[in-house]
Amino acid sequence: MVGGWLAPPDWAHAVPITELISWRKLTQPMYESDEDRVDAAEQLAEHNPHAAAEAFSAIACDQAVGDEVRLSAAERLADVDPGAAAPACLAIACDQAVGDEVRRSAAERLAGLATL
Question: What's the pTM?
């Protein structure tokens, strides 16, 4: 490192260290837990319900997220956008990796949405 610049040999040009730090922040996970993602979506719902619906849907359909958190996101999605909640509940109910009780709850929520 010379003068705040890094120049790895395989790069065609030098990159300022501040740009590398910014890139590192962008590539690191934004939230420490799945619950943090749900909390952020809840806060977003107060200002932009459409964006919150997209966030809740993404959480509910993310197989890497815990079962209970996925179901919670689907339930909150139903409050913000009932029409968008049906596919999220269906994704949970059909996911064989999800526990039986959570799958059953998602199916019941889906049935409730069908009567709206």
Answer: 0.72
CB 58 within 8 A of CB 27: no
10 Å Cβ neighbour count for 99? 13
Q: Residue 76: which of 114, 115, 111, 35 has the closest Cα? A: 35
The band of 4, judged by pLDDT with boundaries at 50, 70 and 90, is: low
Task: Read off the tokens for 18.
Answer: 């501040």
Structure tokens belonging to residue 59 = 């959480």
Q: So where are the chain's domains?
A: 34-114
C-alpha R_g of the chain: 20
Q: Are 76 and 104 in contact (CB under 8 A)?
A: no
Would you give the distance in Å from CA 78 to the centre of its chain?
Answer: 16
